Amino acid sequence: MYKAEIVIGIAAGVIIFLLYQGLNMLPILFMLGLAAAIYYTNVRPGGKSFAVYNRQTAAQHLVNFDDIGGQEVAKKELQEALEFIKDTERIKSLGIRPLKGILLSGPPGTGKTLLAKAAAQYTNSVFVAASGSEFVEMYVGVGAQRVRQLFNQARELAAQERKNSAVIFIDEIEVLGGKRGQSTSHLEYEQTLNELLVQMDGMSIDDEIRILVIGATNRLDMLDPALVRPGRFDRQVRVDLPDKHGRLKILELHTRNKPLAADVDLEEIAIDTFGFSGAHLESVANEAAILALRENAQEITMQHLRQAVDKVIMGEKLDRLPSTDEKYRIAVHETGHAIVSEFVKPGSVASINVAARGNALGYVRQSPQDDMYLYTVDYLKGQIAVALAGAIAEEVVLDNRSTGAANDFSQAADLAKRIIFGGMSELGIVSPEDLPRGLLHQTITTILQEVERDVRRIITEHRPLLLAVVEILIERETIAGPELRQILRMDTRCA
């Protein structure tokens, strides 16, 4: 305190003397002001405060493992690792080296931050959170200073709360701990990473306040090897997108405080949302509640939930109003997709829509009955058939095609490539690098033409059914999958 006052007094005296000598002090004053601003905002101790989770914030942020739907494997593995913190005396008696860091890896929105908060609650620890981008600065040494502040803040907070452990959570840790030598400002990056390594190396089971570092990333390949070796981030926990059972649990958690109508079937919504993260599913529940509010409804219905899924996938419904002829063509196109999808795999259509959302004038949303991670040639050809069906329906009913099928053709070609490179075409096992472009094009064309013949036959044979569905779709703008299947069952030719 007194040192700062002495320095300020000396600086003021020097400035007055130089002004008396007639020296222009404006450039010097400007530089001094800039340096002071940088110091007080970035460098000085206590200049950076990280997000904390303590008694004052616990009421609105309390998270337990039971509050996290799905991710059963990740939760079990994380809880096992946390036992090293909870039962310190037993760990010491067995001579076990305690874990210093746990790395959570997986796609965005899968619940990595929630798992870290639950870890803090599970171990009765304080929780301090930071993002990797908070440590990146153009000034050398600032990032390292902030790393030290992060660890000091965790220790001080734990002491204030009279707890003997703290959890430090670093999101997007690949920004802070990326591979060295790849950045143009490598000196600052390397100093920051080195400081993190030093702090983690200095952690001991005998510390008055034990610290566990939890990092989260969706780019595991970018992390520096020194960071992920044993003795630093000892345990890596994969946090994947939830399966059907996990999605159902997440939906149940996010709707438990919401009034649901009797017709709501969360299992059906879980099936329809293959590939959704926990964040997406939370958004579905929230959007469904908003839709109910708009309609002044007392309960959330199944229709609200289906519309919410469409909104999360495609975006808000647009005011774009196509002409009568254009709307009819869109309805023919989408109905073609839907009917062929039901023929290829019964029960696969979740809804047909001709209301514009995002960049789509209409769309068919498919819902796999079971989560799939491996694909056969029959499945891929079936998906090609669905992709081609829209354009072929236009051609059969309206005698020509439109530009609306451009994305469908691109998707069909990509699926044909998967057949070829998966060794499931007439070429057998091939190397993508060694396959001539002409032969690749010829094989793609052969696959597409074969599938196109089958699709044309289905559309032609069931044209009256297609037209009947089109009329309903134009009137209502949307048809749910169960209703479509009811219409199909009424037609004896589709039985």
Walkthrough of the structure:
The protein is of the alpha/beta class and 495 residues long. The chain has 4 domains: 2-43; 51-238, P-loop containing nucleotide triphosphate hydrolases (Rossmann fold, 3-Layer(aba) Sandwich), CATH 3.40.50; 244-314, Helicase, Ruva Protein, domain 3; 324-494, Up-down Bundle (Methane Monooxygenase Hydroxylase, Chain G, domain 1). It is built from 20 helices and 9 strands. The strands form 2 sheets. Strands 1-3-4-5-2-6 form a 6-stranded mixed β-sheet, with helices on both faces. The chain has a 3-stranded antiparallel β-sheet with strand order 8-7-9. The longest helix is centred in the C-terminal third of the chain and has 25 residues, at 437-461.
Brief sketch in words of this structure:
The chain has helices at 2-20, 26-43, 55-61, 72-86, 88-93, 112-122, 142-160, 173-176, 186-201, 225-228, 244-255, 266-272, 278-294, 302-314, 324-344, 377-398, 406-421, 437-461, 463-476, 481-490, and strands at 51-53, 101-105, 126-131, 165-171, 210-217, 233-238, 349-353, 363-366, 478-480.
